[in-house]
Description:
There is one protein chain. This protein is mainly alpha-helical. Helix content is 70%, strand content 3%. It has helices spanning 2-13, 15-49, 80-113, 123-138, and strands spanning 60-61, 77-78. A two-stranded antiparallel ribbon has the order 1-2. The longest helix has 35 residues, at 15-49.
Amino acid sequence: MGKFLDEFKSFAVKGNAVDMAVGVIIGGAFGKIVSSIVDDIIMPPIGWLIGGVNFSDLKIKLPTVEIPGVEKMEAATINYGHFIQTLLDFVIIAFCVFLLVKAINTLTRKKEDAPTPPPVPSKEEQLLTEIRDLMKEKK
Length: 139
């Protein structure tokens, strides 16, 4: 059991696992922020522009089937207004992730494109170069 705990500890403390956990937590918080922006800031003006429609109230009621002896149930609905809001959430989050990945790729590409200085020749190479040059002069 001790070896299992040691393996788990080495896994949990590794940079990748901790970085992933932080990313998941920040991603969840970012998703809530985007949902609030869409629900509270973007959708109300859009609903107002198209005639005071509240998107979260947009739904299609399905017909109910009455069964004798069974209590009348509330009609099932297809909530397409909520789906539109969720779709807008996704588009905004996907666009932000795209911009983040694009920025990271640009930064890494700049590092790769930087010219590397030519390697300094070793003392043996310098000596051989001098010998070669001297032999050329003698000819």
